[in-house]
Amino acid sequence: MKLRLLVLVLIPFLASAATPAERAIVRAEKAVEQNAERPEAYNELATALARRARETADPEYYVRAHRALDKSFALAPDNFEGRKARAWVLLGQHEFAKALEIAKALNRQVPDDVLVYGLLTDAHMELGNYKDALESVQWMLDMRPGNVPGLTRAAYVREAIGYLDGAIEFMTQAFQRTNHSEVEDRAWILTQMAHLHLATGKVREAERLAGQALELFPGYHYALAQMAKVRAADGKHAEAVELLSKRYDAAPHPENLFDLAAALDRAGRKQEAQAAFREFEEKARRESAGWDNANRELISYYVDFARKPAAALEIARVEIARKQDVHTLDAYAWALAANGRHAEAWTQIEKALKVGVKDARIYYHAGAIASKLGDRAAAARKLLAALGAPRLVSQRGATLEPSRGQKER
Amino acid sequence: MKRARPILAVALALVAAFPPAFFAANHREAPITALDRLADIADYFAFVSYDDPNKVTFILTVDPLLEPSNGPNYFPFDPEILYEIKIDNNSDAREDVTFQFRFTTEVRAPGVFTAFVGALGGIPAPASSPAPIAPGTPLIPRAITSLDGPGAAGMVVRQNYTVTMVKGNQRTELGPEITKYAVPSNVGPRTMPDYPALYREGICNLGDGVKVWAGTADDPFWIDLGAAFDSINFRTTGFLAPGVLSPEQDADDTRNFAADDVSGFNVNVIAIEVPIGLINRVGTRLPASHPAATIGTWGTTSRPRVKVQPVQPGGPAGLSENWVQIQRMANPLFNELIIGTGSKDRFSMSHPKDDAQFASFALDPLLARVFNAVYAVLLGNPDAVRIPPPPRTDLLPLVQYTALHAALGGTPTGDIPGGPVADLLRLNTGIAATPKASRKRMGLLAGDRAGFPNGRRVGDDVTDIAARAVAGVLAGPPYNGFPHNRIGDGVNVNDVPYPETFPYVAPALSGRDSRHVDPGEPGGGPVQ
After folding, report:
1. A64 within a domain of the structure (yes/no)
2. CA–CA gap between residue B495 and residue A389 (Å, rounded)
């Protein structure tokens, strides 16, 4: 009897221990059970599953989300909320061009839907259409000043154009306005704030924020990555390896393995690093042809570690044909430079810099390319910018020490 | 096969944070303004001044349905809002002349609990006054009899405003030497024993023939709002079917046959009267036949924009001098009744020059189809209110210059640009005001060429005009006969007479003494 009572008492706590996405899935599945003929129920389920995909980094949830949406469309072809959810899931799967197409159609149909502007912003950002992204996200803030989805995206855009303090400002506002029960959302925002603080050299603040994110959402893979960057910035490479290892366990994706391999390399665990790089290459190559890939990391691997510049350029060409965001431009430029095509490399990296992005890795690459072109003044400027802007840790955790590939040129 | 995009889950997780768009009440046409009522434009009027054919009066009303008794703060204008009246004088749907209004609030006695207080010649603390306030100490100021000076001692909160005229890059503050006070709401007879005097004192002559007035006034609009938005559930006015007026009712511009739901409410008003030569492109009043005699005009409210992009690359963004437009209004009921709910915010935030994107709403209004369906049921005849097929070119007078000219009888001569399809309130300034005795509430539909849609006067029955126009009366036979030409909500006149001179809106209703005329009450028509 006592045991039963204990169980009964514990049930609410167990229920509350579920993540927001898990709770949303339970609610949506119940709604589907009770209203199997309502497309809205399947749309809710798809949305909940996609949220869970972010929480866990498990792509299987996207597959299930699509299945739920198929049922929704079978009941109500082309229903608006279903198409919104479809675009969202496609963004999650990195199918940016398809998502953009849907989002544009949705925007034409209902220009007042604020979240559709969010879908547009995301797709434009990933494809490198920064002007369009800026316009879309400005609409979000104009239509509903202070809305959280608009603030987080506006922060993302501000970061891309190099306005890091402004990005922190918006992200902080977003955090303050997010419901306390949305722990994963809050952890995600804290992680982004940690990333931005790292980018402005505030390592201790980044550490505090990443720590808060991990307290809110234990084992959160995004937060583990930020904490690893903090440790790397402190020179604690062994701890960084441990954190990235945990992250890879939670989210076993090639790009996460690349980060782990690079950290192992920095930690002096060369053999383990080599093994990890080999595994990474194999996994990354398998999915290289799709939109959802680790091609940027693969390019970096071929240039900086594996000394295979031709392979890097081959992949970079495929990737740049798809999207022209600053990081893809940088990767392409770096691959061109590795193949001795420095003038073309400069053209590409200049495009990235013109967006305004302030990223140590990109500055460093620009400086190195300028140096190869014999423009010592530009090289000095870019390298100084690399040293002056962010901490010596780029978004992917690379150091500013000349990489192996660079040393060899 | 892996990544989970970061930002989007935050976005869609918060869907519930946004209220769904809804079919809003008359004065809150778009969701964005339903959330920001201070920036919500209630109505917009533009007409040749009744007492001076050389001048035009523009009236912008905002912050609708103000309950006169709603103290202690009553209804200040928002100093954060930029209020604008815009005029296109060359038929391109872009503003050529703009009048901007900005308000400043003074809190003159922060310790007092209400915005307005006063009685008699002032009331001192009585002999029984407990310490520390000694008997005889002035306690309640004298009644408010003026907007400034000793008679304004009881105005704990007071607003003044600036008026700036913008022509191209040229900005001119009008009457900079004159302090322009906004007229407060009418609190009641003890506090404001001669409210009409305050109302009159609010009229400011800025020189060069320009007058302005701003403050709280009787809401000049009238409509059976509840019936209109109850899916066109008009009251039974005793003739054939609800929402169809008898010839006698239709001809009576002095009585109501249904309740004016705006009766007893105030609204905040900005009015400006300017010489026609100041705003047209020629510089002097022109005859009606002159192409430049016709202007297009609209009002807007805007708030400072939080810009994503820094003003200076790499510099702080934050609040900039750029503004985000919250609302605009030209033709009455256009956003409410024509624009689809999913596009209302976009419409509010867009500019007339870009209105081609909304042309499909204007040229095939859903409201017409609703009339068609509702009256088929009411009159038991699917052909009861036949509507013209789309595209509804008969509605072009609302959105094109040339069509308005045609509707007016082709007044201008020469090459008249039609301009783009745009929601502008178009006014031929060469057509003088119609004398009161022959003024018709149905405006142009009743042959009164100085009435809507040639501009809009405060007394034009835009509800009935718009309803009949949407039903097809402008399309000619068979759409211009009965019952199309008798559709009406049964509210034919305002609850308060309008003044015949600037600012043309009646003084604010008393907070203490005013009342609303509801259905079933004398003057309020039937409940059903």
Report:
1. no
2. 67
Cα–Cα separations (whole angstroms), residue A58 to A88, A123, A255, B120, B405: 16, 21, 14, 77, 65
Task: Check pLDDT > 90 for residue B336.
Answer: no
Domain count, chain A: 1
pTM here is 0.83
pLDDT of residue A166: 92
Task: Residue count of chain B, please give it.
Answer: 528
Q: How many CB pairs under 8 A join A and B?
A: 161
- The residue in chain A having the minimum alpha-carbon distance to the alpha carbon of residue B21 is A112
Shortest Cα distance, chain B CAs vs residue A289, angstroms: 11
Segments of B127-240 assigned E as strands? 138-140, 157-167, 170-173, 180-181, 204-207, 210-218
The answer to whether A297 and A262 have CB atoms below 8 angstroms apart is no
CATH of the domain at A341: 1.25.40.10
Whether residue B5 and residue A157 make contact (CB cut-off 8 A), yes or no, is no
Domain enclosing residue A346, as ranges = 287-409
Q: Is residue A46 part of a domain?
A: no
**What pairing do the DSSP bridges indicate for beta strands B138-140 and B123-124?**
antiparallel
In the block, which residue shows the tokens 């930690």? A267
Residue A110 with chain B: CB contacts under 8 Å = 342-343
Domain-embedded: residue A242: no
- Of residues A406 and B110, the one with the higher pLDDT is B110
Question: A323 in a domain, yes or no?
Answer: yes
Contact B9 A137 (CB under 8 A): no
By the CB < 8 Å criterion, does B313 face chain A?
yes
Give me the residue spans of the domains in chain B. 23-125+141-220+263-357+399-441
B13-51 per-position pLDDT tens digit: 333 232 222 222 234 445 556 668 899 999 999 999 999
